[in-house]
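Lab meeting, item 3. Inverse folding demo.
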């Protein structure tokens, strides 16, 4: 059974008290700050030389800064992928294996009980980071919008179903449902 976490991005943003655009600006600012800090640490490390006892501590700090920078870069790329249409309902997330490695090339799709609606709910493939983003507007769904309730999220590899959520999703303009899934071999 996969480990799934389901929260909306808006809930996260509300808790932080900022908008998604401000999150993007904050990530960019943090990256610039960390870049400058990494340069200062590297310069100090070069001045001390490899045999100075303080060099070990500085190497540890530099490693932490570089790991945080990598994490911030991934977050910045994820924020760039979010559709610009704010009136859209977005379903986004990330798929990983139990070791934390991203799962690339899996098909993620929403499924409805109505076959006509299923034709409008297009799926996407996960990218190299295991990320996926789908966006739907009322115009995309047309007259079938009222039927966009009790949708399930499915993950497939070729034709093999790896994961199917409970029927918990419903079309909700101006919102994002975000999933972080860890899929095991038996999923």
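The presenter then showed the designed sequence:
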């Amino acid at each position: 059974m996969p480990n799934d976490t389901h929260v909306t991005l808006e809930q996260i943003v509300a808790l932080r008290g900022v908008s998604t655009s401000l999150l993007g600006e904050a990530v960019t600012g943090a990256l610039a700050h960390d870049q400058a800090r990494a340069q200062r640490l590297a310069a100090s490390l070069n001045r001390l030389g490899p045999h100075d006892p303080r060099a070990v501590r500085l190497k540890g700090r530099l490693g932490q800064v570089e790991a945080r920078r990598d994490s911030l870069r991934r977050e910045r790329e994820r924020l760039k992928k979010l559709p610009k249409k704010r009136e859209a309902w977005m379903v986004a997330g990330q798929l990983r294996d139990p070791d934390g490695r991203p799962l690339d090339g899996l098909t993620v799709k929403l499924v409805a009980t109505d076959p006509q609606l299923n034709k409008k709910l297009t799926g996407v493939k996960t990218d190299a980071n295991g990320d996926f983003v789908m966006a739907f507007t009322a115009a995309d769904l047309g007259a079938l919008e009222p039927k966009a309730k009790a949708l399930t999220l499915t993950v497939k590899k070729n034709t093999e179903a790896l994961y199917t959520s409970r029927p918990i999703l419903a079309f909700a303009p101006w919102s994002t449902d975000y999933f972080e899934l860890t899929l095991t071999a038996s999923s």
